[in-house]
């Protein structure tokens, strides 16, 4: 799967979160577009936690992905 396909897959996953909203999708996508690691980690998290809501996903982004990237 190429990068464009991965981004499209993530966008679909984000749009299907139960309490999704446009700023959530656009901010998450912007971060994923800037980092392959972010893209892969976020996609894996959402696929592994299909019932996660936006708050849980944002918490994961902040505590796991950003913390990992910032060392």
What would you note in describing this structure?
There is one protein chain. With 71 residues, this protein is mostly helical. The protein is built from four helices and no strands. It has helices at residues 3-15, 22-34, 36-48, 54-70. Helix 1 runs antiparallel to helix 2 (22-34), helix 2 crosses helix 3 and helix 3 (36-48) packs antiparallel against helix 4. The longest helix is centred in the C-terminal third of the chain and has 17 residues, at 54-70. The chain is globular and about 25 Å long. The protein starts with a helix and ends with a helix. The relative contact order is 0.16. The model has no long low-confidence stretch (mean pLDDT 94).
Briefly say what this structure is.
This protein is 79% helix and 0% strand. By secondary structure, the chain is mainly alpha-helical.
Q: How are the secondary structure elements laid out?
A:
Blueprint: H1 3-15, H2 22-34, H3 36-48, H4 54-70
Describe this protein with a few key phrases:
mainly alpha, 79% helix, globular
Instruction: Find the structural class using helix and strand composition.
Output: mainly alpha
Based on Cα principal axes, name the global outline.
globular
The biggest sheet, with number of strands, parallel, antiparallel or mixed sense and barrel status, is: none
What is the percentage of strand-forming residues? under 5%
Oligomer: single chain
DSSP helical segment count? 4
How many whole angstroms does the radius of gyration measure? 11 Å
The helix-strand sequence is HHHH
Number of strands: 0
What average pLDDT do the residues reach?
94
Poorly predicted runs of 5 or more residues:
none
- Binned, the helix content reads over 70%
End-to-end Cα distance, whole Å, is 28 Å
